[in-house]
Design a protein that fits this description.
It is a single chain. The protein has a five-stranded mixed beta barrel with strand order 1-2-3-5-4. α2 packs across α3. A hairpin with a 4-residue loop joins β4 and β5. With about 200 residues, it is an alpha+beta fold. It contains five helices and five strands; from the N terminus they run αααααβββββ.
């Protein structure tokens, strides 16, 4: 039955279903990794070592936060499902693609807003970053440009929980995603100064 259904699809719809199912599977894997405390995100593979590298879903600054793999998957999720579900209602392919792109962009914007809201709620708790974070260890979440030339993101274990903060480094080389780090000091309530360490275990 599935084989006959697939054979009856046009090439366009086969491609759309392929994109949709791949995005859905990736989203499910990301969600599982997130609940398990793993790093389910990474830099979008355009290593330009600029402010775009310092972006993630929980801190919206100038739109640079669009350039993450998680947002790419979210866009494909909204785009793909809109395409396959609305194909019967929208006959014109160009209009269907336009509507699906709009839905994908709206989904990314919604997720970015949600993560930012959750981040603000998380950081408004009882933790005093300026003192409590110093000495904590973690990993780079999004690339941190070298010599304080821009901000990146780190995940550190603080007060028994993994939390995300903006971060800068005085290192001569940028700290890539996954690099183990230690917090040296706090720049302000939301930004940490970090350095690379040899290892980190959650």
């Amino acid at each position: 039955m599935i084989a006959s259904w697939w054979a009856g699809l046009s090439l366009f719809m086969k491609i759309m279903w392929g994109i949709t199912l791949a995005a859905t599977l990736t989203f499910v894997i990301q969600s599982i990794l997130t609940f398990l405390g793993a790093d389910a995100d990474t830099d979008f593979d355009v290593d330009v070592d600029t402010s775009m590298d310092g972006a993630d879903l929980s801190n919206i600054e100038g739109g640079s936060n669009l350039y993450t793999f998680r947002n790419f998957v979210n866009f494909l999720l909204g785009f793909g499902w809109s395409t396959v579900l609305l194909r019967g209602s929208i006959g014109a392919t160009w209009l269907l693609i336009l509507v699906s792109v709009a839905v994908g962009v709206l989904l990314v914007a919604l997720v970015m807003w949600l993560f930012r809201w959750l981040s603000s709620m998380q950081q408004s708790g009882t933790i005093h970053v300026q003192t409590d974070a110093v000495g904590c260890e973690g990993t780079v979440y999004l690339t941190i440009p070298a010599q304080r030339s821009g901000e990146g993101k780190v995940q550190i274990t603080i007060a028994g929980a993994v939390r995300e903060y903006a971060a800068v480094t005085e290192s001569e080389q940028p700290l890539k995603t996954g690099t183990p780090i230690r917090v040296v000091s706090s720049v302000n309530a939301n930004t940490l100064l970090v350095e690379e360490t040899t290892s980190y275990t959650v």
